[in-house]
Design brief:
By secondary structure, the chain is mainly alpha-helical. A hairpin with a 2-residue loop joins strand 1 and strand 2. Helix 3 packs across helix 7. It starts with 9 loop residues before the first helix and ends with a helix.
Length: about 325
């Protein structure tokens, strides 16, 4: 057989180089892209409320400012009431936990022997506190996020016009469908996550108070925050709460773990199906895989944004492959 020659045209080489350069530029700009995506999520979450205010004859710009003021007021009052207690109790938790581990016996063995296995759990409350404080301390990023979200909200009503200019009349239908689906599903995800975090946080707080756990406030806040990482978050939260409960008694620890399991099962069987499954419609296995991939690629931010990014890719791919 004669050897076959494989010819590569200069167009293929140029295309390959341009694709590689494009991917490199996207990687360099990944932080800005992530920031814009977060702003887009916020826009989708706030746009329904702004639209309702606009229907009440309130100018859109004024409606955006009203929504901003309400959100900032709620966050400010929440922080003012919770953060001092959170910092005080978290500091006590971090200082007390290593000492109490030395006095705990598990099947006749000192728990301090297992302490190296729990370094992450011991440091997690303080790390959560540092992360929360760093978010609010980064004023520039916060203001930039608000500004970009403001302009996205302001221009949302003109998206159809921009779509025609960018994609032309032929691509208008699919582009408009993608934007509308993104608005619906991403807004449902944001609102569902906020509601789920609040409900789980309150349920955990009541359970911890009933069981007589110390540091109920930071533990409940951790429980609410960790709900943003589906399936994995509740397991970590229950482990932390159970470890704290061991400082009281093994029975309290057992009851705490049982309470965590009950809350988690209630979330899976009643709360999440109503809020997430019927609106977002992702299978739990897909959610876990998306979170694992996101965490591997970008750490905690990747895990948090894995589901909305997956939804975005799914919607865009689904609309593009549809037959006209």
């Amino acid at each position: 057989m004669k050897p076959q020659k494989i010819e590569i045209s200069y167009k293929t080489i140029i295309f390959t180089v341009l694709v590689a350069i494009g991917l490199g530029v996207l990687w360099i700009l990944r932080d800005l892209i992530l920031l814009f995506f977060v702003c887009f999520l916020l826009m989708e979450a706030l746009n329904p409320t702004v639209t309702k205010l606009e229907k009440l004859k309130i100018p859109r710009t004024l409606g955006i400012f009203i929504v901003y003021l309400i959100v900032i007021a709620v966050i400010s009052f929440s922080i003012a009431g919770i953060v001092p207690i959170f910092i005080e109790q978290t500091s006590g938790l971090v200082q007390t936990l290593p000492n109490t581990l030395q006095n705990i016996k598990i099947f006749g063995t000192s728990a301090i022997d297992f302490s190296t296995q729990f370094k992450l759990l011991e440091s997690l409350p303080s790390e959560v506190a540092k992360a929360a404080l760093s978010v609010f301390s980064n004023i520039f990023t916060g203001l930039l996020t608000l500004v970009i979200t403001f302009y996205l909200l302001h221009e949302r009503r003109h998206f159809d016009r921009y779509i025609v200019k960018i994609f032309g009349a032929k691509g208008q239908g699919k582009a408009t469908k993608i934007i509308n689906l993104l608005e619906t599903r991403l807004a449902n995800w944001v609102n569902g996550e906020l509601l789920l975090m609040t409900v789980i946080g309150l349920m955990s707080y009541v359970a911890y108070l009933f069981l007589g756990l110390n540091y109920a406030v930071p533990l409940a806040i951790i429980a609410g925050l960790m709900e943003i990482v589906p399936n994995i978050g509740p397991i970590i939260t229950t482990g932390i709460a159970g470890l704290v409960a061991l400082t009281i008694s093994p029975l309290t620890a057992l009851l705490t773990i049982l309470a965590g399991m009950i809350i988690h099962q209630s979330e899976n069987n009643f709360i999440t199906p109503k809020i997430m499954k019927e609106t977002v419609g992702l299978h739990p296995l897909v959610t876990i895989m998306a979170i694992a991939i996101g965490a591997k690629l970008a750490g905690i931010p990747g895990a948090v944004l894995a589901v909305p990014i997956f939804l975005t890719i799914q919607i865009i791919a689904g609309v593009l492959i549809e037959k006209d």
